[in-house]
Amino acid sequence: MTTMGIIFANIYDSSLGELTNKRTMASLPYGGRYRQIDFSLSNMTNSGIRHIGIITKHNYQSLMNHIGSGQEWDLDLEEGGLEFLTPFAADHNSSYRGKLDALNSAMSFLVHSKEDYIVLVDSGVLCAIDFREVVEHHIASGADVTVVVKDGISNGKKQLDMAVKVDDENRVTDIAVDYCASEAYLASMGIFVISRERLIREVTEAVAHNRYRFERDLVMHGFAEEGMRINAYRFQGVALFNESTVEFYRNSLALIDPEIRHGLFNRSNRTIYTKVRDEVPAYYGEFSEIDDCIVADGCTLEGSASHSVLFRGVKLGKGAVVRDSVIMQGTVIGEGAELECVIMDKDVVVRPGSVLRGTKEHPLVFKRGEIV
């Protein structure tokens, strides 16, 4: 039994506004020093998956710069362990209409691979998971497709790409897509396991009949119309759904909670790797007051910050105050400025004395390189 991986890099790009205007969802910075794709790549390599394709359609230069040669994840682009499946590499230079369209454009990659099973992963859900357990669960179930699901996400308010009901043996009994499912449903984490040969057949058949969405047109259609057997794997660990700007904001600040932080980064044999950068330690000025924050290396902190995430190289001027905010790499906050409930993208400059206030329900977002 061998397994390969497929990562969709651009899922939910449109729902994060300015944060993904010039980058993919997969390359969105998170947690002070990581990118969201670090979780998918690390989970795969920790699970022994060494053949991985990253499907991306646009704005992928930042993603490629971050991954580089792939050595941080024990992967090597030169030996074919990791491949970028761009529209140009796949003879497809228009926007994908859905995951099935994207997989169809990467058909040559799928056909020429030799692994038995494929793990398909979105970039919007962050977790530390062992895919070996998921694949073994899939094989033991005898199902055609296994979906990884999470309790406690469905609340009747959050619209889910896919939600399922299961019986006592974790066999799916009902599927809903694009639906604000009640608490009786389990939320899909955007992680699926299917045999490679089955996926090739299903994608070819679906696209030939003008069906392009994976959840609706392959999984739900197969379940409802063709008797496809769907298995659910319940994930018990921490799972953060970063599928909107507000969710990204809340889940960034959630890392301040030790239980959440340790659930992502302190799991045995599930280390999350990222691109290594040599930076000096953070500098704390004589009158700085930093309370309940995550602070990355390379910061120069002369002011005050509370309940915030400060990425690498952030400069906080004297008398400046930051509360409940996410401040990305290289941002400079001038003296006496006051920030509350904001998301600062990389390299933003805040003029001295500026006052910027959002709310926890509607944080202010400032795009990369902006001067405010």
Concise account of the structure shown:
This protein has 372 residues and is an alpha/beta fold.
Structure description:
It contains nine helices and 28 strands. By secondary structure, the protein is α/β, with parallel strands linked by helices. Strand 4 (52-55), helix 2 and strand 5 (82-85) form a beta-alpha-beta unit. The radius of gyration is 21 Å and the shape is elongated. The model is unreliable at 89-93 (pLDDT under 50).
Distance between the termini: 55 Å
Strand content: 25-35%
| Structure summary, number of beta strands | 28
Main beta-sheet annotation:
9 strands, mixed
> C-alpha Rg, in Å?
21 Å
Global mean pLDDT: 92
Keywords for this structure?
single chain; about 375 residues; alpha/beta; 5-stranded parallel sheet; elongated
Secondary structure: elements and pairs:
Blueprint: E1 3-8, E2 29-30, E3 34-35, H1 37-46, E4 52-55, H2 61-67, E5 82-85, H3 99-105, H4 107-111, E6 117-121, E7 125-127, H5 131-141, E8 145-150, E9 160-166, E10 172-179, E11 186-195, H6 196-208, H7 214-225, E12 230-234, E13 239-241, H8 245-254, H9 258-265, E14 283-284, E15 289-291, E16 294-295, E17 300-301, E18 304-306, E19 309-310, E20 315-316, E21 321-323, E22 326-327, E23 332-333, E24 338-340, E25 342-344, E26 349-350, E27 355-357, E28 364-366
Parallel strand pairs: 1-4, 1-6, 4-5, 8-12, 14-17, 15-18, 16-19, 17-20, 18-21, 19-22, 20-23, 21-24, 22-25, 23-26, 24-27, 25-28
Antiparallel strand pairs: 2-3, 6-11, 7-13, 8-11, 9-10, 9-11
Helix pairs in contact: 3-6
